[in-house]
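testing teh design pipeline on a random one, pls ignore if ur not involved
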């Protein structure tokens, strides 16, 4: 398995149109995200990367949406995604539409997203599936240097491991668009053979486990009431009640 972090600087496309069949990819991705965007609430949504900026997120209830990338068009913030200029736990959701495939340090990018996300915040990842027709295209020499074949393709299981290490709970995962050159992606094949889809999407939520003791619970544990049975036994052993004559086993003595 190749390391996730590489020294090379990758140049990501600024528009979906720069990818072969890119507009089909964007339409298919928007169709997959539409049911989940309506479930996201909050104040701030970050769309990290130029391709994320072109994804239609009008169905999302979060009104303040900010496009972030190092350079490109339709951006509100020009910044390196590996060093986001936002405070910790200040963002409600992050969209990374095909941002990982052209990132030299995907681990660092996910850690930075985890830093700015609030507890129970949302993260949406989309990428190319190496076990697909696009993955086979990377084996062809004259296609390797063309987009999207020049991108890095990580298996879904590898991305699940990265998210689990950061304590994200995967809410939805799906592979789709089996036929990349078809506008519908081959609906029949995508229904029966989704594992061969050229694209993969993951919707996850940040979960935070409490690592400190709850003071209310610790106080209740200290103030436990002793057993009543033990207290009665102790009282009977210390206090001896004199026996009355009627209680004597030899009444005539």
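output:
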């Amino acid at each position: 398995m190749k390391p996730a972090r590489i020294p090379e600087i990758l140049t990501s496309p600024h528009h979906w149109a720069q990818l072969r069949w890119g507009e089909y990819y964007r339409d298919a991705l928007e169709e997959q995200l539409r049911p989940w965007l309506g479930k996201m609430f909050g104040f701030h949504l970050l769309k990290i990367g130029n391709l994320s900026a072109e994804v239609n997120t009008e169905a999302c209830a979060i009104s303040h949406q900010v496009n972030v990338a190092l350079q490109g068009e339709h951006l509100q913030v020009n910044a390196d995604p590996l060093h986001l200029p936002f405070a910790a736990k200040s963002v409600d959701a992050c969209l990374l539409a095909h941002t990982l495939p052209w990132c030299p340090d995907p681990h660092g990018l996910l850690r930075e997203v985890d830093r700015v996300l609030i507890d129970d915040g949302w993260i949406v990842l989309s990428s190319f599936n190496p076990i697909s027709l696009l993955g086979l295209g990377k084996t062809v020499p004259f296609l390797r240097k063309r987009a999207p074949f020049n991108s890095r393709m990580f298996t879904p299981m590898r991305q699940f491991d990265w998210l689990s290490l950061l304590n994200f709970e995967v809410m939805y995962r799906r592979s789709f668009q089996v036929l990349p050159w078809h506008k519908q992606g081959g609906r029949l094949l995508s229904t029966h053979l989704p594992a061969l889809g050229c694209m993969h999407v993951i919707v996850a939520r940040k979960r935070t486990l409490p690592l400190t003791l709850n003071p209310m619970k610790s106080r209740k544990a200290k103030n436990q009431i002793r057993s009543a049975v033990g207290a009665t036994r102790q009282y009977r052993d210390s206090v001896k009640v004199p026996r009355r004559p009627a209680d004597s086993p030899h009444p005539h003595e």
